[in-house]
Amino acid sequence: MVPIVTLSAWMVFQQPGFLIAAFLLPALLAVGFDRRPAITSGDQITGLDLQETLLAVTDEELRQAARSGSDTTVLVIEIDGFKRLEERLGRPALDDILRSTARRLLSSVRDLDTCARLEGPTFAVVIGGVMPPGRAEARDLARRLQEALSRPVEVEMSPVPLTVSVGYACASDVPGATGAALLQSARLALIHGQRAGPSALAGFGPEMRSRVARRGALARQAARALEAGEILPWFQPQVSATSGRLVGVEALARWPRAGGRMVPPAAFLPALEEAGLTAALGRHILFKSAEALSDWREKGLQVGHVGLNLAPADLTEPDLAERVATTLRRLDLPPEALCIEVLETVVAGQAEDTVVATLKDLARLGCRLDLDDFGTGHAAITSIRHLPVHRLKIDRSFITGVDRDPDQQRMLSAILIMAERLGLETLAEGVETEGEIRRLAEMGCGALQGFAIARPMPFDQATDWIAARPALAAPRPEGIRRIG
Predict the structure, then answer these.
(1) pLDDT tens across 4-44, in order?
(2) Residue 342, beta-bridge partner list
């Protein structure tokens, strides 16, 4: 029997282009006539292969690489901000974006390479025969694909800005790799890169798997701690800049372990997010904070309101406003006793964005709304214009050294004047010195929060602090005046 590659080559040699076929024959013999498994079906939207085919092709590439000494690379590519795009544009437009991305992907790789759609906005590519083996070549390829796919897409005659994040893994970095292991490693690299934000580009290294394993263990521990009620709100006071009177507290999630050792929020919050428990944490902190406020009121302590930080995962839950209303009714609290603190960057979308709609529902309920870390985002004026904001929480970057730095004073004065013209209250975050307290009071800032006032405290300590507050007074300079 004549081998299929020899027979195919013989047939081509009978045609006028036999010289071209002769040139290509060594390559055909090296790689095999057709390494791709028979494709019975593909993705219905993009027409690309599915994960099953990608894994089969990758396994074959790895077998070929073992014989030739070349490398195999898998890249996982994800369109950034896909959920927000869906909310803004709708499903039909999103399908157009997926199809356009698939076409660009196919035109950016070789015919020998295999492209697949995994799920949602995620694609994968397997590249075989990479010489010399190593991350440098894979990174160059990943960067070229990222540039090719990060261009505006035309949707209904309008350009839609698009960015993608890419994670990649080389078989030379994954000893004994299989197709599934290589794909998983590329996914891990993508997740690792996305922690730094959109347009991420990250390669898998052997050290990454141990970090991922540690993070996975922490995520499991954090999930158990949340279920056991070990993660609780601690409360940081907010006081009037001029009188020192307590005006409210901010609830901050804290995880104290046995022996008094604290797990940093920067560690356990991402772990809970990875475990898909951000919304569960938000529900827990909401109830425990409202419960604390109810207890203080029963004790006759005037706290004002409790501020609650809500993540995007909380604000996209359709029943959030109803759940808040139920909690307030259950504890006999007025809606204005709850202040929703939301980052300026979270509300940077369109006026009809789901997050903004939820915030408006909470405002209609009667809850207060603080714009947190004001001045660090890119949608400050827009956010104020289309949201029922009550107060600006001015970021610490505008507060540090305000008693000594004239430039800081001018910047802060501009923010305070704008807030006054718009009828908004103000609060300075991260106040750490007596000098800052005095200068902020002179400049007309409404309220203060920071270590110079008090650190976050568990419920019992916060209760003692609040009860003793009437005997305390924030330093108040003689002859308060407003600068600006």
Answers:
(1) 333 333 333 333 333 333 323 333 333 333 444 444 468 88
(2) 371
Between CA 251 and CA 314 the distance in angstroms is 15
On whether the CB atoms of residues 61 and 35 are closer than 8 A, the answer is yes
What is residue 15's predicted lDDT score, i.e. its pLDDT? 38
Q: Is the pLDDT of residue 449 over 80?
A: yes
Q: Does 460 score more than 90 pLDDT?
A: yes
CA proximity to 8, closest of 28, 31, 37, 35: 28
Find out whether 115 and 49 touch, Cβ atoms under 8 Å. Answer: yes
Note the pTM of the prediction, 2 decimals. Answer: 0.62
Contact 166, 146 (CB under 8 A): yes
Residue 250, beta-bridge partner list:
236, 307
List CB contacts of 56: < 8 A, sequence separation 6 or more.
Answer: 37, 179
* Cβ count within 10 A of residue 348: 17
Task: Please identify which residue in the block is written with the tokens 């894979």.
Answer: 138
Closest by CA position to 249, among listed 473, 427, 14, 409: 427
**β-bridge mates for residue 305, sequence order:** 248
DSSP structural state of residue 49: B
Q: Please measure the distance between the N-terminal and C-terminal CA atoms of the chain and give it in whole angstroms.
A: 94
CB 226 within 8 A of CB 281: yes
Per-residue confidence (pLDDT) for residue 375, from 0 to 100: 65
Is residue 355 within 8 A of residue 346, CB to CB? The reply is: yes
The whole-angstrom separation of Cα 364 and Cα 354 is 15
310-313 contacts: CB < 8 A, separation 24 or more? 310/282, 310/340, 310/341, 310/342, 311/273, 311/278, 311/279, 311/282, 311/346, 312/346, 312/355, 313/273, 313/278, 313/279, 313/282
Contact present, 319 and 365 (Cβ < 8 Å): no
The distance from CA 472 to its chain's CA centroid, rounded to whole angstroms, is 40
Residue 157: count of CB within 10 angstroms of its CB: 5
Which residues are CB-contacts of 269 (< 8 A; sequence separation ≥ 6)?
253, 278, 281
Q: Shortest CA distance to 55 belongs to which of 142, 182, 185, 169?
A: 182
Contact between 203 and 138 under an 8 Å Cβ cutoff? The reply is yes
